[in-house]
């Protein structure tokens, strides 16, 4: 029986391989914003899966780590990008989730992402404490990067509401819009949880010129203690032109989740195709070289989809003890 679309996604999806008339099952991915790694990788992944997995039609649309878990749980998508910490919070009804999202299942662990914070090269802002009245773009509401930002500000004793009270502004916009706002002088701070290096920061390096803001070890320890699933990360020296020292920051492990209602045989075929085409995806974004089959179950804090589990059993993949 053909699966019925429960709701149209706000952003128009990029569709691949097959039509509603041709396919028995729609597999809609929610990935990330334009300008990040998730969206172009998601587009290629869904193109490949649509071509190789019989009986499915696929699409890819933009999203964010938190909203993607909600979309998959609610039936507005069948597969989504997120983070191990975010997926667990959704499943358990913690953090930014006001109820349990128990329809999501683990599909694959991918690569670590790093929280990156940039100000203009000549900005007087040196630490997060200096951002109490700044003009900030932390990403869109529902993005994991925005939750990262809130966790950091909390460790410094203020929040976005306080920033606004102090005369600052908070812009919940995309990477592309954030770049434009910084170039035009409308924001002082751009924040994003993404791969290193990332295209938006590279663009801002060239104009108007930026400097990264890191976190001292004491704050890192505090934030990680308060937010299980966060890990220590860094922007390594040399990642961006002129970056001469590592920038200490927060990290989190990227993953993909699927709907528990997606048939086992389809998820099994998707998993096989997904890992068979590793080189194809690495050609889209170099960060994919950090994705390893042997890590596919590491950090999975929610149940693994039975179809994916069958795939990993055949491939000899086990979670690290």
Description:
This protein has about 325 residues and is of the alpha/beta class. The chain has two domains: about 160 residues, Periplasmic binding protein-like II (D-Maltodextrin-Binding Protein, domain 2, 3-Layer(aba) Sandwich), CATH 3.40.190.10; about 140 residues, Periplasmic binding protein-like II (D-Maltodextrin-Binding Protein, domain 2). The chain contains eleven helices and eleven strands. Strands 1, 2, 3, 4, 5, 6, 7, 8, 9, 10 and 11 form an eleven-stranded mixed beta sheet that branches. The longest helix is centred in the N-terminal third of the chain and has 15 residues. It is globular, with a radius of gyration of 20 Å. It starts with 13 loop residues before the first strand and ends in a 6-residue tail after the last helix. The N terminus is likely disordered.
């Amino acid at each position: 029986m053909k699966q019925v679309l429960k709701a149209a996604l706000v952003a128009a999806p990029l569709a691949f391989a097959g039509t509603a008339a041709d396919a028995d099952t729609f597999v809609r991915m929610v990935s990330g914003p334009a300008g990040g790694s998730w969206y172009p990788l998601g587009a290629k992944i869904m193109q490949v899966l649509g071509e190789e997995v019989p009986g499915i039609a696929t699409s890819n649309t933009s999203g964010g780590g938190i909203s993607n878990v909600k979309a998959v749980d609610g039936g507005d998508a069948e597969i989504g990008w997120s983070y191990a910490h975010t997926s667990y919070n959704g499943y358990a009804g913690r953090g930014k989730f006001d109820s349990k999202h128990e329809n999501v299942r683990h599909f694959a662990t991918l690569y670590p992402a790093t929280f990156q914070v940039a100000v203009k090269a000549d900005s007087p802002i040196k630490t997060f404490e200096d951002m109490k009245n700044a003009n900030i773009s932390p990403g869109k509401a529902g993005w994991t990067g925005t939750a990262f930002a809130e966790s950091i500000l909390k460790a410094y004793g203020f929040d976005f509401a306080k920033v606004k009270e102090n005369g600052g502004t908070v812009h919940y916009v995309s990477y592309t819009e954030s770049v434009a706002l910084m170039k035009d002088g409308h924001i002082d701070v751009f924040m994003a949880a993404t791969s290193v290096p990332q295209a938006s920061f590279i663009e801002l390096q060239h104009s108007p010129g930026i400097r990264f803001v890191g976190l001292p070890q004491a704050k890192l320890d505090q934030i990680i203690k308060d937010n299980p699933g966060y890990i220590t990360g860094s922007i390594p020296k040399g990642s961006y032109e002129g970056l001469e020292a590592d920038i200490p920051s927060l990290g989190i492990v990227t993953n993909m989740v699927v709907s528990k209602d997606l048939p086992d045989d389809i998820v099994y075929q998707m998993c096989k195709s997904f890992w068979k085409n590793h080189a194809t995806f690495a050609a889209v974004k170099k960060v994919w070289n950090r994705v390893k089959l042997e890590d596919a179950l590491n950090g999975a804090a929610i149940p693994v989809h039975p179809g994916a589990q069958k795939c990993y059993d055949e491939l000899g993949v086990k979670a690290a003890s």
